[in-house]
Amino acid sequence: MSATVVEASVSTPIERANLFGIMAEFDNQEDLLTACRNARDAGYREMDAYTPVPIHGLTEALGWEDNSVQKVVLCGGLIGCLTGFSLMYYITMIAYPMNVGGKPHFSWPAYVPPTFETTVLFAALSAVFGMILLNGFPQPYHPVWNNPRFVLASTDRFFLCIEAADPLFDREATRRFLEAQPAREVVEVEK
Q1: Other Cβ atoms closer than 10 A to 81
Q2: Which residues have C-beta within 8 Å of that of residue 167, sequence separation ≥ 6?
Q3: CATH no., domain 13-66+139-190
C-alpha cells in the first residue's frame, strides 16, 4: 500500500502582502449565515460580511462580541452628568451665589434637570461620534470595492470575505473552504 502525501500550499509573505482576502458571494441571507457559522467553527476570525439589509444573528455568526460603543456611550453619559452637575454647582455656588427666599446655596434637587439633560446630550453625541470613529469612517477606499460584483451588496447579494490577515488563512485552503459553502462565486480580493 502506498501512502499519498498531500502538500499544503503555504502563502508566502509576498502573496499575502498583495492579497486582502478571499470573498464569496451568496444569493440569500440563510446561506451567508451558514457560511459565517462554518467559517467561525473552522477557526477563521478575521472575516467580515457585507449585506444590503441588517441580518439578525449575523454578529453572533461572525463571532463578534465587541461592545465598544456601549462603553463609549457610558463614558459620554458619565462625563455629561459630571459636567452638568459641575456647571450648576459653579453657577450657584461660585459665580453667582444668591440667597433667594432663604433657600440654601447648595440646593442639589434644582441641579437634577440640567444634569439629566447634559447626561443625555453627551451620551447621544458620544454614540454618534463613537460609532463613526469605531466603524472607521470616513473610509474613502476599501479593498473589497475592487470586486466588480460588490456593487450588488447594496441591492440583493450577500458577501463574506475572509481576510489574509487571519492566522489560519491559506490561499488555496481558504478558497476550497469557501467553494464548499453554498456560494454563487468565490474570488480573490487584491489590495
Answers
A1: 17
A2: 45, 46
A3: 3.30.70
